[in-house]
Amino acid sequence: MDSLTLREAVRIALAAQGLDRTRRIGRKVRRHVDQVVEQTGLLQIDSVNILMRAHYMPLFSRLGAYDPALLDATAWGPRRTLFEYWGHEASLLPMTLHPYFRWRMARAERLDGIYGGIANLARDRPDFVEKIYREVEQRGPLVAGDLDRANHKGSSWWGWTETKIALEYLFWAGRITTAARRGFERVYDLTERVIPATVQAMPTPDEPDAQRHLVSIAARALGIATQSDLRDYFRLSVKDCKARITELVEAKRLVPVTVEGWRQIAYLDADAVSPRRIATQSLLSPFDPMIWERDRTERLFGFRYRLEIYTPAHKREYGYYVLPFLLADRLVGRVDLKAERKGSLLRVVAAHLESHADGERTAHALAEELTTMAHWLGLEKISIDQRGGLAPALAAHI
Question: Rounded to 5 degrees, what are φ and ψ at 279?
Fold first, then answer.
């Protein structure tokens, strides 16, 4: 079995995610958005908006400043090429992957693999679920609130009404989908009125073929990964993922290798590349596919990272919404950021330097990156709170 050094594994992983090169200078157009989504395989959606919604951030990390309306058009415009579904949590996915998620939709319709609160309502009140579906059919596109006045009953599950839970079951089962977003709220409509007819007409692979395709995409997007990394990318079950990995190894699409310092066997994508050097600087969102699997982030970079949004303020180690800073092939720092839009201010609540990093070099590069981000967000000023060891040097560069 071949072996890789840790630095080789890092370079392979960064190249697979499109984080191995300096950004393109000049105007960004829709094909640049398409290229990023093709490379990452999906964009995770999350409601947190203290800086910028999660699905916009991986594009900024790879492209630099771009017009977010490009992604809006790609995801929800009349010529959309993305659709919303459960990929790695709620995600935007290339439209061509729709057939490869129909097995998950079919399982959800059988109440397999969905959250208990949703499954309970769908099992106990099928007539109510069907009533909600008929209302979407007759009145859609609509948001949950459009139906709540007639169907509202309070629910203790996530604070959702029963109408919202029924809509989410229908969404998970693939019978309805997201036609648009109103603010951040899903606007639901029948799937056949949203997904292009050419996509609906694509044949539905059987479960093993579909899962094998998804594991292949995960392998390409990760470059080098353990079984748990591959499973996590599209949230497959251990059993399903293990079987598909075995098949891909037999087909020579995955190559088992050892990686310096890793206890588990790793799998190298057959087409993975290993650049001689990495020339990049990027702030990475907590929901970026490069770092969303925290154990892998620690294995690759020696960087322990946790999202502390749900940690009480007095117990947070680094901050509320902390972005790691990638410089060349290392994570060299982390910043707690907040966009204060009323004051047109990008606020650095805290800035921390990793022990191995050069403080002056990191501060200079991070100042450039924060300036680019502020411009992208349409914010006129940057402020640096004096919290964290990197803050003084960073302030001197802003």
Answer: -125, 90
Six-digit token string for 174:
């693939």
Question: Prior bond to 141 cis, omega within 30?
Answer: yes
What pTM was computed for the model?
Answer: 0.95
In terms of phi and psi (left: phi > 0; alpha: psi -120 to 50; beta: otherwise), the region of 337 is beta
Q: Over the stretch 19-51, which tens digit does the pLDDT of each residue have? A: 998 887 888 899 999 999 999 999 999 999 999
What confidence tens digit (pLDDT) does each residue in 128-186 have? 999 999 999 999 899 998 887 656 555 544 558 999 999 999 999 999 999 999 988 99
DSSP 179-227: EEEETTEEEEEEGGGTS-HHHHTS----HHHHHHHHHHHHHHHHSEEEH
Among residues 27, 211, 9, 225, the alpha carbon closest in space to that of 113 is found at 211
Cβ of 333: how many Cβ atoms within 10 Å? 26
Residues 136-148 have pLDDT tens digits of 999 989 999 888 7
Q: Hey, what amino acid is at 26?
A: G
Nearest to 238 by CA among 269, 261, 215: 215
Q: How far apart are CA 116 and CA 122, in angstroms?
A: 10
Q: Is 309 helix (H, G, I), strand (E, B) or coil?
A: coil
